[in-house]
From TrEMBL:
Protein name per its UniProtKB record: Transcriptional regulator, LysR family
UniProt cross-references to InterPro entries, sorted A to Z: LysR-like_Sec_metab, LysR_HTH_N, LysR_subst-bd, WH-like_DNA-bd_sf, WH_DNA-bd_sf
Location of the HTH lysR-type domain: 1-58
Keywords: DNA-binding, Transcription, Transcription regulation
Keyword DNA-binding tagged: yes
Lineage: Bacteria, Bacillati, Bacillota, Clostridia, Eubacteriales
Any one GO molecular function term: transcription cis-regulatory region binding
Family membership noted in the UniProt record: Belongs to the LysR transcriptional regulatory family.
Gene3D superfamilies per record: 3.40.190.290, Winged helix-like DNA-binding domain superfamily/Winged helix DNA-binding domain
Length: 300
C-alpha cells in the first residue's frame, strides 16, 4: 500500500472535500479520486460517500481514518528520529534563485557550506523570482532565494541579506557626472527594464509608484532576463536602469557605467530564502537554513 494514499484519504476527511484536499496537497482532483478508489479497491469496501456537498467517511472509512492517523504520525516520528541519529548530513540540495542572490550572494555561502558539509551536493538554478516560487510550490526545488516578499500560506521565509537598488547610466549620459537624481527626472528617459516576474522590477516599480510616479509612462526600450544583460545594455547606450548594488562592485570599474542614487526615494529591500511550510522537510535544506542563521549571527 502507498502511504501517500493514506495521507490523501485523511486530508479529504479533514476538509470534507476532494477539491480542497487536492489544493492542500498540491495535486489534481482526479489524482485524489484515483487514490481514494485504489484504497477502496484494496479494502473491498466503500470508504467515502457524498452527503450534500460534503464528502464524509462511511463506518469503514471512520475506522481507517483512525488507524491511518496513527500510522502517519508514527512514520513522521520515525523519520524525525532517524534523521536525528544521522550525524553526517549528506544528500542533494537544490536551490532556485533569482539573479541577484543566485549570482552574487549564494555562491560564496554555498562554498562555505560545502566546507562544513562536504557530503552535500548543492545544485543552484537561476531564474526569475516568479519561476522560483512556482518551482518551490511544485516541489522541484528544496529552497528558493528571491528579492521579493512572498505572501503564501504554503511558503515561509527568512531574511537572507539587505539590498539597495541603484541607478546606472552610460558614461556619456548627462546623469553620469552627478551623484543623485530626483525620481521626476526619470520621466522621458529611455529605460532598460527587467522581465515582468523580476523581484528587482517589482521593488523599483513599487517604490516609484509610492512616490507618485506612474510607471506606465516610463519609456521602456527593452526588457532583459538578467542583471548582466541589463548592465551590458546600459553600457551599450540603450538606456538607463536600476540594478542591485551587489552587482555594482564587480562591474563599475571594468565597464563604462556610472552609478547614482535617487535623491528622494530610498530604494532598499530585503532578499529572502523561501521554503515550504511543512512539519518536516528535506534534512539538507533544514541544515542549510540553520547554517544561514549562524552566518547572520557572525555578521555575514
Amino acid at each position: 500500500m502507498n502511504f501517500n494514499f493514506l495521507q490523501t484519504f485523511v486530508t479529504v476527511i479533514e476538509f470534507n472535500s476532494i477539491s480542497k484536499a487536492a489544493k492542500a496537497l498540491n495535486i489534481t482532483q482526479p489524482a485524489v479520486s484515483k487514490q481514494i478508489a485504489s484504497l477502496e479497491d484494496h479494502f473491498g469496501i466503500k470508504l467515502l460517500e457524498r452527503l450534500g456537498r460534503k464528502m464524509v467517511p462511511t463506518e469503514a472509512g471512520n475506522r481507517l481514518n483512525r488507524h491511518a492517523k496513527i500510522i502517519l504520525n508514527s512514520l513522521q516520528q520515525a523519520e524525525k528520529e532517524i534523521n536525528e541519529m544521522i550525524s553526517e548530513v549528506r544528500g542533494n540540495l537544490v536551490i532556485g534563485a533569482s539573479t541577484i542572490p543566485g549570482q552574487y550572494i549564494l555562491p560564496k555561502i554555498i562554498g562555505l557550506f560545502k566546507k562544513q558539509y562536504p557530503q552535500v551536493k548543492t545544485v543552484l538554478e537561476i531564474s526569475d523570482s516568479g519561476k522560483v516560487i512556482e518551482k518551490l510550490l511544485e516541489h522541484e526545488i528544496h529552497l528558493g532565494a528571491i528579492g521579493t516578499k512572498v505572501l503564501h500560506d504554503k511558503i515561509a521565509s527568512i531574511k537572507l541579506s539587505d539590498d539597495e537598488l541603484v541607478l546606472i547610466t552610460p558614461l556619456e549620459h548627462p546623469f553620469a557626472t552627478r551623484k543623485t537624481v530626483k525620481a521626476v527626472e526619470l520621466a522621458g528617459e529611455q529605460m532598460v527594464w527587467r522581465e515582468s516576474d523580476s523581484g528587482t522590477r517589482h521593488a523599483v516599480e513599487e517604490k516609484l509608484t509610492a512616490k507618485g510616479l506612474n510607471v506606465n509612462n516610463l519609456i521602456i526600450t527593452a526588457e532583459f532576463g538578467s542583471t548582466e544583460s541589463i548592465i551590458g545594455a546600459v553600457e551599450a547606450g540603450m538606456g538607463i536602469s536600476f540594478v542591485s548594488h551587489w552587482a555594482v562592485p564587480e562591474n563599475e570599474y571594468r565597464r563604462n557605467i556610472a552609478v547614482l542614487r535617487l535623491e528622494d526615494i530610498v530604494l532598499d529591500r530585503n532578499l529572502y530564502i523561501i521554503y515550504p511550510k511543512r512539519k518536516y522537510f528535506n534534512r539538507t535544506a533544514e541544515t542549510f537554513i540553520n547554517f544561514l542563521h549562524q552566518l547572520d549571527n557572525k555578521g555575514f
